[in-house]
Amino acid sequence: MSSPSPSMLTPDLTPSQSNASSPSIPPTPDARPLDVVIAHFNESLDWLSSYSDLASVYSKGQPPHNPSLFREATSLPNWGRESHTYLHHIVHNYDTLADVTLFLQGNIHDINDGTPAHTDLTLDEIVGMAKRLTDLPDLVSSQNVHSHNQLQGGIIPFGQINSFSDWDGVKYKPSWVERRGKSLKKSKYTPGQFYNYLINGTTSANDRRWKSPPAEIRWTQGALFAVTRQTIQRRPREVYERAYEYFHGLQEVNPEEGHYMERLWLAIFGTADGSVQQASRETLEKENIALGGDQDVNTVEEGIFMLET
Predict the structure, then answer these.
(1) Residues 284, 129: contact at Cβ < 8 Å?
(2) pLDDT value at residue 211
(3) Which Pfam families does the protein's record reference (predicted)?
(4) What is the mean pLDDT of residues 63-87?
(5) What is the DSSP code (8-state) at residue 139?
(6) Which residues lie below 8 Å from residue 269, measured CB to CB, with a gap of 6+?
(7) Are 123 and 51 in contact (CB under 8 A)?
C-alpha cells in the first residue's frame, strides 16, 4: 500500500462537525417518480434538454449557461469526482428521494483521452429503462416468482460491467496511468479498508466491526446507473454520510478513493453477488423481444435481469 504524499490531506476518520461538511437536509414535499442527477464539469448539457426539468445539475466547474432550465442547479467544490456529487445528492435528499434516481456524468457519450464512451444507449433509452425500475417488482410477482428469487437489485447499470477483487490495492493499467492517472492522489487506505470504513465504520481488521469484503464484486464503469429509493435506503444514512464527510475531509480533485467508490457502488447498494447485468444495446433488444414475444417457461426475462422460476 502506498504512503500518501506529504501534500495529500489525509482525513481524520472521525466525521467533521464543521458547517462545510455537515449537510442539512432540506424538506422536499413533492413526490417524484424520477430524478436525473448530473455530475457536471464544464460539459455542454445540450444533450440533456429533453429531460432538463427532471435534472439536478451539480457543477464543479462553470455552471450551466441557463440554470433555470433545470429542476435544480447547484455549484459544488471540485472534490472527490462524481462520487462526491452523487453522495451530496443522496445525503441531502435521503428522506425525500425520488422513486428512482438516475445518476449520470456530464456527458455520457464522451470519448475522453482515449477512454471510450461508457454506454451505447441514447438518453431516451436510458430514461425509459430507469422509469421501468419501479414496475419490475410487479412484473416479477405477476410471474409467481418465489420471494427468495426476487430481484435483489432495484438498480440498472448503464456502463460496462467489470469484476473486482483487488482489496489490497487497485491494479491500474499502465496506459490509463499514462493518459489520465498522473494527477491521482494515492489513498492511505486499501480498497478493503475503505469499504469497511464506509459499511462498518472501521479501517482495522482487529476491530470487532470489521467484516471481510466479498471475494469478488461487480462494478459499472463510469458510475452510470438508475437506482430505486428503497435500494438506496437499504443502507442507513450514516453510510452515505461517512463517505460524504470523508471526501470533504480530503478536499482533493482526483483522490484514489473516488476510483474506489466507482467500484463499490453496486456493493453498497446490496448487489455485490453480481446479480445485476449491464444495460446495453443488446439487453435493450432482448427486453423488447421478451416483452413482445414468447418466453421460456422456466425463466422470466426482463432483459437486464434473468430470474429462475
Answers:
(1) yes
(2) 95
(3) DUF3431 (PF11913)
(4) 95
(5) H
(6) 153, 154, 155, 227, 231, 232, 234, 235
(7) yes
Residues 6 or more apart in contact with residue 270 via CB below 8 angstroms: 152, 231, 234, 235
Written in H, E and C, the secondary structure of 157-170 is ECCCEEEECCCCCC
- Measured between alpha carbons, how far is 178 from 171 in angstroms, rounded to an integer? 14
Choose between 266 and 272: higher pLDDT. 266
Residue 204 in this model has a pLDDT that exceeds 90: yes
User: What are the phi and psi torsion angles at 178 (to 5°)?
Assistant: -65, -40
Judged against a pLDDT cut of 70, whether residue 115 lies above it is answered with no
> Angle 306-153-169 (CA atoms, 0-180°, nearest 5)?
105
Residue type, 259: H
Instruction: Name which residue leads in pLDDT, 14 or 182.
Output: 182
3-state SS class at 271: coil
pLDDT band at 193 (very low <50, low <70, confident <90, very high): very high
Cα 54 to chain centroid distance, Å, stands at 18
Question: What is the reported pLDDT for 110?
Answer: 72
Residue 86, all three cell numbers: 452523487
CA–CA distance, 8 with 251 (Å, rounded to integer): 9
Is residue 267 within 8 Å of 195, Cβ to Cβ? yes
